[in-house]
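Quick review question:
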């Protein structure tokens, strides 16, 4: 028989060869994040160690900011010790992480980043290949041979993913009380039918996955502190009692499979892996544990996740405590930590910021334990004072304001603002929404799963009125960060053909919803003139976003009044920068202008760029540069009862970096048709002496008023926080002079104080 290739025409063979070569050049790129890897995941096999291999156990300790990182500590010869950073590298970190059951090492840190340890320094000058099954097999000076100090203790950061099939093997059975828990996974499995249908799952068996099999834990040594940790891991702030009698009956009918060990938590751990291993479980011949049953927990969800009989899940997230809040986070349960003190919101400095303190914040806000304690302004920089520094909590405080902190510590800037990522309940919202047809998992046509004629079908969302707020909710629901763009046409993203039909229309979101289905929409009464398919709604998402904040002190310091003749205001008149009464004003008359400077900072995590491309920028002869945004700021003057008394000026601007923080270079400038935007850490200053930087108060009567500025009022560019885009001042005008005082940004004062300033409470205005 001839080979198949000989039967094919020569041109076909040539095409096949060329195709194989073309594909080969892209092999090194791998798959983008979010796409499934075609390889079968590696399965764990327990290490077979030679009899003369030193028996050790590892743990991650110290001032951790995630449960899967910390100072490397080694238990040997009945004592915990550390590892020196001399010659340590990523290969050694890989051995440590895999020995602990993590899929791989992400990074390692020298010089006792997680604090100095105690006891012996067991390993120094490690030279691992990365393939060793235990750190004890890596070449070194010899166990216990070191010339290091604890200032050189090494730390590692491991991946979140665990090795499939990982099984804990205790090589030191006589020292079990010293060891941390290491399992592949943990879950709460709903047992009773009434809980199986509930989302989130709040009650059921606690099960650990060990050696690829789910097993129950014997409750003979279980206590409330263990339940507190488990509930916290799954996003619940507290635990409660349950009906044990029902579970006894269930355990009699179905024989449990017990894990080999019990659990010993102190109650303030953020994750089960930080708890100590308890004594080995004594299992009877009939497969029941000695004097007990499988562990059951019943958790109490925070109010934002608790179902109610009237409305189902709360549609928009609301903070449960008035003294603490999170700002600048992309999803519910993450953000910069801000506390209210003396009527003013301020931040927390990241000195000594830990998982323990972060967990107090998370529980206080109705979430579970902290998934991560972030430092260095990672979720954007706040404004106002830094209220707390060097915070130290026991983990059992009801509020972060009860924790000890250094009242004398000074010198913290907003570059050191602390933030958190909290464990939140698994609501399953992402299962009813998907992005289809995009070039990567962060973009595509929005497709939703809706009930139609008694069955669940995938379909598109009508793009009429689709904007940034709706896109923000989509990205949050999918856990993809912030919206970077909202699209009203998606013909360039061919989604699933079977999902072309519109199943949701009239969508209007406030931006705080956890799911698109929680936004206002038409329900079953669909109305969409444009239709679905190529005209369906789409989004692109980004892990970061800008955050514009106006400097209120600059407004206060630069405000003054000027009488300017009409013949010098021709450009301003053409750009509608004067009140409507100027239409009949003679050329020799004067307009009275309230002038001020605006200094707009980008405190976010990415550059603020105009939505419009360069091809659509508008040239302004008066200002001699291109304007990239039609409406960037609105200026208004209100009476004390909230009535607008001076017409707001809708200003269009050129965006550029006027000045930057130390160490940051300017990237944007208006001259010579340059790129426009505001870099992170820079600010754009619009001086009081340029056209349109004013409010026309020619007809204003003397009195007390509220002055208001709104930045990015139409949400044209997505930001991490719109609440601080508004600034208000008290303004006094006596007919000859003007004073501006008590200037502050939206959200910077307590609700009670803010309500004394009429106008908008935040930037939640609609211009659609």
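Suggested answer, residue by residue:
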């Amino acid at each position: 028989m001839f080979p198949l290739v000989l039967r094919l025409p020569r041109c076909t063979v040539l095409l096949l060869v060329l195709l194989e070569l073309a594909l080969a050049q892209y092999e090194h790129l791998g798959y983008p994040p979010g796409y499934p890897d075609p390889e079968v995941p590696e399965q764990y096999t327990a290490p077979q160690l030679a009899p003369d291999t030193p028996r050790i156990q590892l743990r991650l300790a110290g001032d951790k900011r995630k449960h899967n990182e910390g100072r490397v500590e080694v238990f040997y010869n009945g004592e915990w010790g550390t590892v020196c950073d001399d010659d340590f590298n990523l290969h050694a970190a890989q051995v440590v992480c895999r020995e602990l059951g993590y899929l791989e090492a992400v990074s390692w840190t020298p010089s006792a980043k997680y604090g100095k340890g105690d006891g012996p320094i067991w390993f120094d000058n490690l030279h691992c290949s990365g393939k060793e099954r235990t750190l004890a097999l890596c070449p070194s000076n010899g166990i216990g041979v070191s010339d290091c100090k604890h200032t050189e203790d090494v730390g590692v950061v491991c991946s979140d993913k665990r090795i499939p099939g990982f099984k804990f093997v205790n090589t030191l059975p006589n020292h079990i009380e010293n060891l941390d828990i290491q399992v592949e996974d943990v879950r709460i499995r709903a047992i009773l039918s009434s809980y199986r249908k509930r989302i989130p799952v709040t009650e059921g068996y606690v099960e650990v996955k060990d050696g690829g099999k789910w097993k129950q834990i014997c409750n003979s040594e279980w206590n409330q502190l263990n339940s507190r940790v488990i509930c916290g891991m799954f996003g619940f702030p507290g635990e409660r009692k349950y009906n044990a009698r029902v579970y006894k009956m269930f355990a009699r009918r179905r024989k449990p499979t017990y894990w080999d060990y019990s659990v010993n938590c102190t109650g303030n751990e953020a994750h089960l892996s930080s708890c100590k291993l308890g004594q080995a479980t004594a299992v009877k011949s009939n497969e029941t544990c000695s004097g007990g049953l499988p562990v059951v927990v019943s958790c109490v969800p925070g109010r934002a996740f608790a179902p109610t009989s009237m409305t189902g899940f709360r549609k928009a997230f609301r903070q449960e405590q008035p003294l603490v809040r999170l700002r600048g986070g992309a999803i519910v349960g993450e953000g910069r930590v801000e506390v209210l003190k003396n009527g003013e919101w301020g931040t927390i400095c990241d000195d000594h910021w830990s998982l323990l303190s972060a967990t107090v914040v998370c529980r206080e806000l109705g979430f579970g334990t902290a998934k991560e304690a972030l430092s260095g302004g990672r979720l954007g920089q706040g404004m106002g004072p830094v209220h707390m520094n060097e915070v130290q909590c026991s983990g059992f405080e009801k509020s972060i304001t009860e924790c000890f902190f250094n009242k004398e510590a000074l010198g913290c800037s907003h570059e050191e603002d602390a933030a958190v990522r909290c464990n939140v309940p698994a609501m399953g919202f992402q299962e009813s929404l998907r992005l289809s047809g995009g070039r990567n998992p962060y973009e595509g046509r929005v497709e939703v799963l809706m009930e139609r004629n008694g069955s669940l079908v995938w379909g598109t969302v009508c793009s009429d009125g689709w904007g940034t707020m709706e896109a923000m909710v989509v990205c949050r629901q999918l856990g993809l960060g912030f919206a970077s763009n909202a699209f009203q046409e998606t013909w360039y993203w061919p989604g699933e053909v079977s999902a072309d039909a519109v199943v949701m229309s009239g969508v209007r979101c406030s931006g705080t919803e956890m799911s698109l289905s929680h936004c206002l929409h038409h329900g079953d009464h669909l109305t969409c003139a444009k239709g679905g398919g190529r005209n369906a709604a789409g989004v692109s998402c980004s892990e970061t976003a800008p955050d514009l904040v106006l400097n209120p002190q600059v407004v206060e310091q630069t405000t003054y009044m000027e009488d300017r003749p009409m013949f010098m205001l021709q450009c301003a008149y053409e750009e509608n920068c004067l009140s409507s009464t100027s239409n009949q004003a003679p050329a020799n008359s004067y307009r009275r202008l309230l002038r001020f400077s605006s200094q707009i900072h980008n405190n976010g995590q990415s550059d603020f760029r105009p939505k419009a491309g360069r091809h659509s920028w508008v040239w302004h002869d008066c200002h001699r540069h291109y304007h990239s945004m039609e409406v960037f700021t609105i200026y208004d003057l209100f009476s004390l009862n909230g009535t607008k008394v001076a017409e707001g000026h809708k200003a269009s601007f050129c965006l550029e970096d006027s000045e930057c923080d130390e160490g940051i270079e300017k990237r944007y400038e208006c001259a010579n048709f340059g790129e426009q935007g505001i870099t992170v850490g820079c600010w754009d200053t619009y001086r009081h002496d340029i056209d349109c930087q004013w409010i026309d108060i020619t007809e204003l009567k003397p009195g007390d008023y509220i002055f208001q500025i709104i930045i990015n009022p139409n949400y044209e560019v997505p930001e991490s926080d719109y609440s601080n885009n508004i600034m208000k001042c008290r303004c006094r005008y006596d007919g000859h002079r003007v004073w501006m005082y008590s200037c502050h940004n939206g959200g910077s004062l307590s609700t009670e104080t803010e309500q004394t300033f009429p106008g908008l409470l935040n930037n939640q205005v609609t211009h659609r």
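Why it works: DSSP finds eleven helices and 39 strands in the chain. The mean pLDDT is 86.
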